[in-house]
Every structure is written in C-alpha cells, then in structure tokens.
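Aim 2, interim progress. The first record below pairs a target sequence with its structure tokens.
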Amino acid sequence: MARILVVEDDEILREGILFALAREGHQVRGAGSLAGMKEQLGQPADLVVLDVSLPDGDSREFLPGLRESNPVPVIFLTARNTEGDMIAGFDAGADDYITKPFSLEELYLRIQARIRQYYQIPSRQKIFEFFPLRINLDARTIQIQDNRVPLTMSEFDILVLLAQTPEHVYTISEIYQRVWKMPDMNSTHTVQVHIANLRKKLEEAWGDHMFIQTVWGKGYKFVEPPVSG
C-alpha cells in the first residue's frame, strides 16, 4: 500500500484515478492545482501523479523546487506528446511521463514500477566509495567530497546500476529495463535525457573526471577516478 497524491485539474479524470487506486488498496489524496498540491504535500506521500498544465501554472516550473525538499517519484500526465515536451518534462525532474489519453491499467503499472524502483534497490552493499564520490543506498544520496549532489530518483538509480559494475557497458535498452523495471518502450530519449542530466550534475560537482562515459554504438559505463599518489 502506498500513499499517492494525484494532481489533476480535470475533476472527472482525477476522481477516476483516485477511485481506481483506492480500489487497489492505496491511500489516495487529490488536488486540482499547484496551490492545492502544496497544501497536500504537508502530509507524507510516496508518489505524485502530476498534470503538467494546471490552472495556476506549469508543473515543469514547479517541480525543480519540489525536488529540493521531496525526492519521491513523480509521474507527469500531459496532453503534450512531442519529443521536445517529453525532454522538457524529464529535464524538470519527472521520473515518468504519460501522454493523454491513457488507460488506467497503464498508469497503474507505471505507478507500481516507480514505487518498486524507489523503495526496493536490492544490494548487499550499502555504500559505494569512488573517491571523491560516495553513494549511500540506504539514504539514496550521493556526495562528492563534502557536497551533496541532488539527483532525481531515476538519475540516482542509473548511477547505482552503472557504479555496481564499473567498466561494464550497459545498452540503453538494458538501462531502461533495469532502472524503470518495465519492458523497453522506445526508451532511447528517456535514457539519454537522464544520462545527460546526471552527467551535468556530476561534472558541475567534480569537473576533473567523467564518471559516466559513452561507448559509441554500444551504451554507457561507469569509470572510477584514477587513484592519486
């Protein structure tokens, strides 16, 4: 059972989603605006289903601020279905992106996958150390030297996947299936946008080494920094 907040200004659609999720045993709350969402986030939530276009603003502009205080999974709902719209959604920090119209079954499967992704990372090792990078699996945080680097859920899980086996090359399809925990569904842009954002954050924090490197024609790999001394 998960605590799910659904933010959608179409009342009929919102109530339909809430009813379907409650029927599956989840605790659900709803809001029809960004202002309503802010009020609802005073209570804990395990996942947010968020419409992009709301009466009082664009959720893509609001989401980066939310990410600083609340790292829970966010699934965007939107009628905007161009490649540019999807990239903008992921750039803003969304973990998944569903275009309208959609089936409740598809939404439920994606919600279940995001919850599993966020709350269940199987690993015997709790800390990965690649000086100056430190990955804490329990806290789901990374630090470079003493500075915490904020990552989205999917960025964190991509980094963990690659860092568990340095120098191993993962294809885009493998990354999508293992991080998003769903069959590959035209995943190229989804993975590439997340990799680009992750690289940018790591490079801004530590510009002396590229942790994630491209293997042209094959995929991506994690490369440990050279040992100094």
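The second target in this work package is listed in the same format:
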Amino acid sequence: HWSKVVPFALARGDQFRPTRPPATLASSLLREDREFQEQAREIIQYTAGLTDEHKVIAEFWADGPDSSYPPGHWCLIADFVSTRDKMGLDDNIKLYFALGNAVFDAGIAAWDAKRAFDSVRPITAIRYLFRGVKIQSWGGPGLDNIEMLGEEWIPYQSLSFLTPGFPDFVSGHSTFSAAAAEVLRRFTRSDVFGMRVVVPKGTSRIEPGITPKTDVT
C-alpha cells in the first residue's frame, strides 16, 4: 500500500509513473515477446559470467535483511559526504531533511509503478521461459558457470534469501539511488564523490572464504 501514502513533495504518487510499460509476454501465449526473451537471456549471461567485482558490487548494493535497506544505505553515504565537507549542524539538518524526504517520495513513486504494471520478477520469468532447457549460470556458493535446467536458475544471492513478494518494475533500488544521488549532487553543487570501499579477500556473505579472491576496491 506504500503507493497510496501521501507524498512530501510530489503532487501525487503516480506523478512520474513511466509512460512506457516494461516488456511482457505477448497477449497471445503462443509466443513470447522478443524483448522480454532478450532481457531474460541477458540476465542468464550475466550470472554465467560473474567476476569477483560483479559479486562484490551485487552484495554491496543488495541491502536486504539485516541491513539499513536502500534508503538507509544512502543516509550512510550522506554521512561520508557530511564528514568529507566538514558540515555543521545547520547543513546536516538541511541535507538529511532533503535526502530523507527524497527517498520517501521515491519509494511512493516506485511502488506506484510496481503495482500499476505488476511485472514478473526474473526468477519467475527465467524458470518459466527456459523450463527444460539447459543453460549455463551461477549454481550457488563456489559453483560458477555450471550447466543446469532453466527451472533451476537462481540469482546471485544467499540461498536462504527469498525473492521479494512485490513486482519487479520499476527497480526500487534504482529509484532510491537516483533520487538520493541527485539530492547530494545539488546540495554539494558537485558531481565529485570520492568515497571508496575496500572489500577484503574472502569476506563475501554469500560465498564466505571464496569471494573475493583478492581485496577488491
């Protein structure tokens, strides 16, 4: 029901609803939409060729259970910007007020689109489209690029983590991130960022002791 929350700065929750819907299965179920299939194949190709850097990026931005979630992640990034620029109390109040309300409205806009388009998530789409077809993909911790049937495909995440029970389009992570990044850019009047995160060897929560093979920045 988040799409029905009264926004802070938006006129209404559907103000920025995308005009172009996501690719879907064709109305005639005798054939699948070409764009939809291409997107599914692209995801399989990504998970078949994951590098340490890909895996580290995926884990850094996952923001699932036991985390600050995507909006909170951007508040932590704002902490870095505040410290970097030696902001005082007045500026911090203004920054977090703007940032907090931006991600608040971003969530409303994203969930309006999710409910309006009700699009399928990748794990459902791929298992449906490639059922009975042999594919190459990540097969679980330590199992890179193995052969499996399409209905066995899994995304790169903890095997105990359930795919969220809400539609795929639009991406909540991307919407939160775009809104927050724009606030930081306007507030500091600069695209300069400068934050660096070093992920030590073997500290992956998904593949502990295996990924990354060396420290990754």
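DSSP finds six helices and two strands in the chain. This observation will shape the mutagenesis plan for the next reporting period.
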